[in-house]
Each structure stands twice: as structure tokens, then as C-alpha cells.
Amino acid sequence: MPDFGAELKRRRTSVGMSLTGLAAAVHFTKGYLSKVENGKTRVNRELAKACDEALGAGGELLALVTEPGSPARRSAGGIAGLPDAGRYFVGRETELDALSALLLDPDDARVGVVHGMAGAGKTALAVAAARRVERSFPDGCLFFDLRGHTPGAAELSAGEALGRLLRLLDVSADQLPADEDGLANLVRDQLRGRRLILVLDNVRSAEQIHAIVPGETSSRILVTSRGRLPALDDAWHFPVDVLPLDDAVRLLRSIAGSHAPGDDGVATEIVRYCGQLPLAVRIVAARFVAGGWTAARLRDRLADETTRLGTLDDGERSVATAFAVSYESLPGDQRRLFGLLALHPATAAEIAAVEALAGLGPGEADRLVDRLHDAHLVVRDERGYVELHDLMRMFASTHALPGVEPADRSSAMGRLVDHALMTTLAADELAEPYRFRPATGLPATGVPFADADGALAWLGAQWPTLVEIVDSAFRHGLHDRCWQLAFVLRAFFFREKLFEPWVRTHERALEATRALGDLSATGMILNNLGMAHVESGRVDEAIRFHEQAQECFAEARDDRGAIDALSSLAWARLYRGEAEATLTDLTTVLAVYRRTGRTRNVVIALRGIALASTALERFPAALSSAQEAVRLAQLPVDRVMSVSCEAWVRFRAGQWAEAESGYRRAAELADDAGSEYEKARALTGLGNTAAGRGDRQAAARWWAEAAAYRVTLDPRVLGEAEYRDRAAVG
């Protein structure tokens, strides 16, 4: 009897049909048919029959195939086992197109994993995609819930899943092997030659379905799981995130119908509080339909973090319960880390901060984070951040953190704060190497930057989190670390003119130093608060803070602190128009700074003396002080400030050419220092110089260029800004 493969190839070529044409006619892949023709795989009667009909062989090809001893097979006959996709499948158009294309792509892997966090809408998307392409799978579309994450239900074992699939494919119970390997072999045999879609929903692990994954077949298996199932090596992976905001609002309105909030703003707020998680949005919509809630009242319940998760529960569906199933399947070490992550005050934490929280080395922390990432309880991104969805974070705080021993929580918080302070100190030392810092005893190890630019970039990214850590340190009784971290952050806040977080952190730090009874620390924080108020133009308040700082330093007999407070007070008086008093006090301060070798403070005092002398129109003395400040400046930012100071003196003295030259140099130095504030100041000075010469057009151009930097130059504390405002309306 002729070999089927050889005869198939002979008949195909004799009628001039390509493998591609035959594949399209019989709904099998070109690669599979090639293996059949070359005798590399066994053919089944379904394929033989299809090929016989396509080539008009009159049953002769089919007669070459016998399958003695195999269980009876029937075609799935177009079994339509998919559940209803639901009336309210909203959005996901891009994902649906992409997922459908993957199912139809003959060159792609046979197995796809649709994965995402609990409640993200994985099943709805998978079913919608399967329905869209079901006509391309003539043997049917089947759906199995393997109950891997179903509350209160036992998950299906691999053997149970195999048995159910075989019975649906019309294999009788007496033909089912008793062992799992036998079942798996029979499934692969039954699927060979068929073109089915199997949607395996709610899969917990790769092991649960590994035996179902077929060998040679044109079928497709679409798996949904809360896990990423990385052990399915040959599968393609399709992540599902929360809905975009507009789609989430559409989902709310489509389900709630006429009961939906009439105010678009309120509806948007509600959806945001739901974290745009489809399950949460559906639960809220159901509450509207059930009645008894106004939109404003439900929004307020959701806005309150203490009641949000409770509100996202309609009696049958619950966000917290859905999350709990994932959480409770974790081993103890992963549960602990998940709970400790709730202590971090930001949504996204650097991996180094996670290591500090957990008290683990990088390797072990990476392992645990990877497992939580695979379970979609956290997201680990390529930047090295670990992030929790807002609702997942609340769940971690209310359900996981209480399971961590109080002593463990306390130690973790201490490690996190120490890590934040250590890294901030290291960054500040690179960015501002000549500044005084409190002794902390913390070693600078493993910092994520190597130079000043890297340190400033890190501070720029992390300062909002560091502000929250200052507050957390206070609430956890870590008062020393609270004020130290606030103090170290001051230089960055000054550089970037971030007055609100500067004041906020220092007000909290002031509570901490007073709780400690540390007069010197209290004086330092009061002095910094005074500087923040000076820089933001609140001079009278600044003076009160500096005077209180002086009192603290005097009581503590802290000579260094006392001279710093006098210097700061002198600057505040300068901005209140008391130039003579400023000059007297800064002359005293300068002598002390010279004697104690505090060069950077010498530079700052010289600039103040130059400004006070300029206000008194003592231009030669002012110029001498400003030029000495330029010569002594050690840091780029001090250099540009000193050059601008000299340019201001020359401007006020009517030396237009020298002033213009000075401001041009300052503008160049500002670029080197990376200071937009000083760049805007220098450009404003160039505009002022042009205005002083009578060139209004050039002045306007310079002022417009300065304004493009979108930094605030306060005329109450900056001479260039005050002159610009007067000249612009003059």
C-alpha cells in the first residue's frame, strides 16, 4: 500500500497545487502538511478526509489511513462552548485587535497567556477575542474554568482538566486512561489534525495545564491567569492592564445606565478612585443600579482610604476578596515582603528601598519581588522600581501588613528611613560638597549615582518620596532621622526653589526636634525655615524664625549655630530694606567665617555685603566684595550667583557695558551649573541693561527669553526682578 504522505505529495503536485493552497483548503498549517508529506508525523482520518476532498481523490487517499485500536473520534463539529462575552465589554479595541491577530497568525506559537492583576478583565478580553476569530476554527471553541483563583472552590488538577476535555471530545469514560500521562497522550492525539480554540480560564500555574498543551495541531490554546506563567516556554504572553480613563468612564456609564452620575467630573473622580480596574468599576456601577447612593456620597466613600475597599464590595463581588485569593496563595516570605511594601510612602519604590525595608540582600529581594511580579501583586519595571496599584496598596496595608510582626514592621521602617537619609546625604555631598551636615553615623554605600549630575537627577526624581519619608519618620517616632533628613534636603529645595516641600518638611522636623528637646537641632531647623520664608518673599515671618533660632542657639551655647542665625537674620533684614544693619551684622559674620575657614560661608557673606553696599550706593566697596566672592566661589552655583552679584553692582553703578558682559557670563555659567533660576536671573539682568540704555525692544526680547524658563523671580528678594517690573511699566 502506498505511503499516505508520498501519495498526498504526488497528487498535489500533479494538479499544480502548492502547499500554501492545500493548507488554505484543509485549514491546516503549511508546516504541518510538509511534515505529513515527508513522513515526519502521523496523519489522522480528519486530515486525510479533508485532503481527499480538496484533491478530488474519490476516497483513495482516505483509504490509506487506518487507526486501529484508537478511541472513537468525532469532530468537535463546531462546538460553541464560549460563554457570553457580556453586554458591557467596553474599550480594549487595540488589545482585541492584537490578540485576535495572534490567534490567527499561523507562524505564532499555539499557546498564548493573557495575564494581569485580579479584576483587570482578562477573561472578558480572551472570550471576546476567541469569539471574533471562531469562524476560522471549524472544529469549535471550548471554554474551561480551571478555578485556579476562584474563592472557595478547589482548582482543577491537570488530570481532571484532561478528562473533561476528552469527554467533551466524545471519548467515552471506559476509554480514558487511568494515569495523567496516558490522558495527556490521548488529548494530543485527539487534538492532532483538529482546528479548535481552547480558552483555559483562571489558571494558577503552568503545571496545571502543561499536559494539555498539544504537539502538532492547528488548534490554539488561550490561557488566562493572574500569574505570568513564565514556565510556559513556548507560549506568547499578552499583559492586560487597567482600562484607560475614558474607557473606564464608558464602562461605568454603560452598566449604570440612567443611574450613572450626571456630572462628568464626579464620574471621572469615581473611576479614578476605582483605579480604573474593571472589577471595581463594575461593582460601583452595580451600586448605582441598586439605588440608595448619591454620586457625591459614593465618591466621598471611595475618596476615604479607610472605606474604599469596603465600598468596592456588592455582596457577591469584592475587590478585596479577589486580591485575597492571590495573596493567600503566597508563601510566608512573599507575604511578609508584600505587607512591608505598604510601609513605603510612595506608590513606586526603588528596588534598593525594597531591600532596605525587607532587610535582605539584592539576590533574595530580587527573587521575592520577581515572584510578586509574576503574581501581578506588584509591577517591577525596567527602571528598577517596584510599584503597587492604588487598590493593591490599600489591600496590602489593611490585609497584609497586619500579618507582619510589630517589631518587624518597626525595624523595617527604621531601615527604610536610614536608607533614605544615607542616600540623600551621599547625593547632597556630591551636589553641595562644602555644606555643613549633621552627623548621622550612616555609611554611604551602594548609592545609585557617581557624580553631582547623577546625584541631582536622583534628588529630582525622589524628592516627593523623601518628603513623605520625613513625615513617616516622625509618625513612627524616628525623630532624629526626621529632622536630619529634612535638614539635608534643604540645599536641594533651595536650589530648585521648592518652597512648599521645604516648609512642609521643616515644620514636621521642628516638631521632631522639640520632642527630642534638642535646642541646637531646633535652632538649625528654625533657621532653615527662616531661609525658606525669605526666599519666598515672606520677610517678616523669616525674621521671626531667625530670631527664635538665635534664642535656641544661645540657650544651647552653640556658637556655630548662633553665627549662622545672625547671618541669615542679616539677609532677611536686607530684604526688609535695613541695609545698614545688614552691613554691620554681615561684617561681624564675615570675620568669624574667615577665622574658622568656612570658605563657602565667606562667599555668601561677601555677596550679602555687596548687595547691602549697593543698596547704600557704596559702589566701590560693593564691587570689591562681589569680586572677592567670585574669586573664592568653589561650587558652580556659587560662582554664577557671585558673577550675577557683580553684574548687579555694575548695573546699579551705571556701568552698562560691564554689567552686560557680567550677565552674559552668568548666563553661560548658569548652564554649567544646571540652574534655570540663575539663567532666568542673568537673562533678566541683560534685559534690564538694555532697558537702562534705552533699548526697549532688546529689553523685551531678553525678558521674554527669561520668562520662558517658567521660574519665579520674586521682586521682593531679587533686585533684577524688582527693576524689571518697574522698567516694564515705565
Termini separation comes to 108 Å
Structural class assignment: mainly alpha
Residue share in β-strands: under 5%
Helix content: 55-70%
Radius of gyration: 36 Å
Strand order of the largest sheet: 1-3-4-5-2-6
Biggest beta-sheet profile:
6 strands, parallel
Total strand segments: 9
Q: In one word, what is the shape?
A: elongated
Count helical runs. 34
- The average pLDDT is 91
Low-pLDDT runs: 72-77
Short description:
The chain is mostly helical and 730 residues long. The chain is built from 34 helices and nine strands. The chain has a six-stranded parallel beta sheet with strand order 1-3-4-5-2-6, covered by helices on one side.
Keywords:
6-stranded parallel sheet; 730 residues; elongated; 9 strands; mainly alpha
What does this structure look like?
- The structure is a single chain.
- The protein is mostly helical.
- 62% of the residues lie in helices and 5% in strands.
- Strand 4 (197-201), helix 9 (206-209) and strand 5 (220-225) form a beta-alpha-beta unit.
- The longest helix is centred in the middle third of the chain and has 26 residues, at 406-431.
- Residues 72-77 have low confidence and may be disordered.
Topology diagram in text:
Blueprint: H1 4-14, H2 19-26, H3 30-37, H4 45-55, E1 79-80, H5 93-104, E2 111-115, H6 122-133, E3 140-145, H7 158-168, H8 180-191, E4 197-201, H9 206-209, E5 220-225, E6 236-239, H10 245-256, H11 264-273, H12 278-290, H13 295-303, H14 308-311, H15 319-328, H16 332-341, E7 348-350, H17 351-358, H18 362-374, E8 379-380, E9 385-387, H19 390-400, H20 406-431, H21 452-475, H22 479-496, H23 499-516, H24 519-535, H25 539-556, H26 559-575, H27 579-596, H28 599-615, H29 619-632, H30 636-652, H31 656-673, H32 676-693, H33 696-707, H34 719-729
Parallel strand pairs: 1-3, 2-5, 2-6, 3-4, 4-5
Antiparallel strand pairs: 7-9, 8-9
Helix pairs in contact: 5-6, 7-8, 10-11, 10-12, 11-13, 15-19, 16-18, 16-19, 17-20, 20-21, 20-22, 21-22, 21-23, 22-23, 22-24, 23-24, 24-25, 24-26, 25-26, 26-27, 26-28, 27-28, 28-29, 28-30, 29-30, 30-31, 30-32, 31-32, 32-33, 32-34
